[in-house]
Amino acid sequence: MGERRDLVLRGGLQRLMKRGAGRLADPVFAVVTGIAGLAVLIILAYMVVVTTYTAVPVFRSQGWSFIFSTDWSPSEGKFGAFAFIYGTIITSLIALLIAVPLSLGVALFLTEIAPRWIRGPVAYLVDLLAAVPSVVYGLWGVFVLLPGFLQPIATWLSVKLGWIPIFAGPATGLSFFGAGVVLAIMIIPIITSLCREILKAVPVGEKNAAFALGATRWEMIRGAVLPRAKAGIIGAVMLGLGRALGETIAVALLVGSRAQVTASILQPGYSMAAVIANQFQEATGDHVSALVGVGVVLFGITIIVNVAARVLVWRMVES
Amino acid sequence: MSAFFGDSGSDCRTNEGVSPLKVRTTQKRRIIADVAARVGMWGATLMVMIPIFLIFYYIAKKGLPTMDWEFLTQSQPFSMRARGGGFVHGLIGTLIMVGLAALISVPLGVLGAIYLVEYGKGRPLAQVVRFFSDVMTGVPSVFVGLFVYTALVIPYGFGAVMGAAALAIIMLPIVVRSSEEMLKLVPRELKEASYALGAGKWQTITRVVLPTAAPGITTGVMLAVARAAGETAPLILTALGSLEIVTKMVGEPIASLPVLVFTGARNPFPAGQERAWAGALELLLLVLVFTLLARIASSRNKLQQ
Amino acid sequence: MSQEPAFSVRDLHVSYGGQPALKDVGMDIEPCKIIAVIGPSGCGKSTLLRCFNRMNDLIPGAKITGEVLYNGQDIYAKDVDPVTIRRSVGMVFQRPNPFPKSIRDNVAYGARINGYKGNMDELVERSLRGAALWDEVKDNLNKSALSLSGGQQQRLCIARAIAVEPDTILMDEPASALDPVATSKIEDLMQELKEKYTIIIVTHNMQQAARVSDKAAFLYTEVNETGKARWGILVEYDDTDRIFTNPRDKRTEDYISGRFG
Hints:
heterotrimer; A: MetI-like fold; two-stranded antiparallel sheet; C: Rossmann fold
């Protein structure tokens, strides 16, 4: 102890000047963490560069028909991905149409009207839905939901409302509709939990002000909560959309894997992510580049949706 | 807002001119709207509960009969048509790849989060990293698979390392953002106490900040692991599959639980589909174990209480 | 009284992000005395305290000019590493802030990071005895520090500070979060610690300052013409008896007698 005491106690002023090895550790650690932080950016940039580079030959040879043609015949070297883009958008829209009102309903239920004892369990169950892997959704969708629930609904729709083009029969089971419903179930927990956070952020003072004016609870929600949370809710919906656009396995199992563009949502179709998962194993040469190209287009669409969503959610949370 | 409540007619000055009956009907309409909205919210919640119960019920019902000791300890028979066998090769493959992915993404992600909280504070670079981490969580996992395919599989072939690389890329932004949230919660007073004792920044971070945030970081890591364990699409493109247990890390395709469930779901034979159900149950349990671990870690998290 | 000062402060100015916080402070601090820093809230007491161990360096945008001589050496000189100063100048904070570790690990923390190779048990015991906590915790050294009461936690923080054997201890309102019994224990402890350490204590409690300190510094807030910028100045620095019975400055007298603040 004595030696150390000498060092520490007054008089040992040389000690103020340097710390030996410890002095180096701080800047080294700072640099290491900085590199780790940059890793996210580097990987993201590298992903874009590598995939785009691989897809360039197909973009060159196909030109705009890569996006606008529906003729996808790998054996003839024709790669028109429009049917996949169409299917991705249709299935995602169906999913949003179902998921948004339900998610908003659950989120409002949990934040505004649910009895206290029920909030925890319901929130927990909805979160549990988010933990289920997409392949499990797909399996369950194909063997349980489709024959047991969706097929009767689809048949009924095609019989009763078949004169409307979007419900034109025959209802085939594997279809845009089936894929859309399962996608909806998958994105409900995402949209719900984001909406809950946004709704929670609405200041209590504003809610009380509405109550003080004699508003019913629903009037308070419409008048004080929803206008405040609008931007955030749109952001949450777009994040759900981003997830639906990129979802692969459940769609690959349910959409029917037929590259066609039809108005009827009861007919089979395809999606960008599904065609990649389905055709990759037997693909060679240009076919591989074309599938990577489909991936690049998918990436582009989801990135736009995600960036827009993040900007909306960030604005909401920051303010 | 005032325009919205303007029709309530409850202002005391105007009230006298309005017949009591009219007041009552507007009141009634308001109450009906309120009740309808409540019914809608309850209804939406009940609707969402239905698929939750259906999924867990059917996975248990269809998975349990096939899920026996043989299923848990044997590999798949060569023919999909044959009964018996199991997915142990897939379970091992999943554990290997998820483990490797965690080994890559957890240190990288936690270090990145330390940068965001301790060094990059207020700097534009930190803001950019934070934003693109959020964006990266939204990148479709199949695209990550395509990237690893073109960058690693084309030169080196399919394998566990390639699958792990794809899973690591999917986990990384989740780990970064969740760790960042936890590191932010470490009280300034604790860091100051450490600095006041003559600790450097590095010592303060490794000996005070990280141990204090550890339970919360573990929660985030477990959730990322749960997410990665259930990923199918990127593994189809990077790990492919196998019929036997594979221990070679590079250059040999390796099975995983989700991919086995996927191929089982697409095959026409009842025996293969039965294994897929049992595999789905096994996968679901695996994922739930990780989510449960996340919950346990977060209940030990003093920072959030 | 002719002893060489432990600290001499000359022309000290502190600003945060361009806003002045403390202007033109100069004072000498003799070793092994208790110096109280008093004044109305927001007058820069804590800012001044944090200049003695360069804790202000941790606040982004903080700028310090002037000299703080520690045993004759300027701790703000270019070639001085702030980390080394904090090893000789310990600090105890307003709210007890033990690490979420065991009692033993809390006390040993400073020694460990400084690469102490001696007998750790001995050091822990000596430090805990020095902080008058040993008898209360000696059977529970492995228990979490967070299980202690507030007053015990604060004494643990003192033990943690003296374990690295500093010669000065800075205390930033160490008893403001404690009940009267715990407060008087801390005050008694300060009298013991003064034998070996110079103690600088910030307090908003007049009675406490009068009870414990040998010398007192009174800081006061000045406001510029627009009323937007405000900063602290040192009004008076003298023996505690004098400050409390016969202050030179009107503002000190007003504050002591409770006319504002």
